[in-house]
Amino acid sequence: MDRGAASLGDSYLNFAFSLAQSLEGGRPKGLRLDNRLLAEAVRKAGLRGKLPKRLSRRDIGGAAEALLAYAAAGGLLSTESLVERLRVKDRGKLVEALACLLKEAYRWLENAEG
Questions:
Q1: Which of 33, 29, 24 is nearest to 101 (CA)?
Q2: How confident is the model at residue 57 (pLDDT cuts 50, 70, 90)?
Q3: Which of these, 11, 28, 108, 114, is most buried using a 10 Å CB contact count?
C-alpha cells in the first residue's frame, strides 16, 4: 500500500508491457495495463486476502504495481524477464503471467522480511 512504490511500479510495468507488446507485434506501442486486469491477477494469485477490505480496483492495482516494484528493486525481477513474461497476446494468459509474477514477488518479500 506504498503510493511511491505503486507509482514507480505503474511506470515500470507499463514500460515493460509496452515493450513486450511492441516486440510481439513488430511495431512500437505505448500501452497501459488497466487496474481491472491487475486486480484480476491479484485475485488469481491468491493475494486479495492479504490486502485491506473495501479497496477500489485502482488501489488493488496499485498494490500489485508496488509489489512488482519492490521485487525489481530487490533484484528478484529483471526487466528482461518481465518483458519476456508479458509477451502474450491473450488476456487470460496475461492475467496468468501477472498472477505468477505476483505470487513469486510476494513469496520473495515474505522470505526477505522473515
A1: 33
A2: very high
A3: 108
**pTM, rounded to two decimals:** 0.90
**How high is the pLDDT of residue 104?**
93
- For the record, the C-alpha cell of 19 comes out as 515493450
Crossing angle of helices 57-73 and 35-44, rounded to 10°:
70
Mind listing the domains of the chain with CATH numbers?
Answer: 3-113 (1.10.1520.20)
User: Which residue in 84, 72, 82, 64 sits closest to 108, CA to CA?
Assistant: 72
Task: Give alpha helix (H) positions in 26-90.
Answer: 35-44, 57-73, 79-85
In whole angstroms, give the CA distance from residue 93 to residue 98. Answer: 9
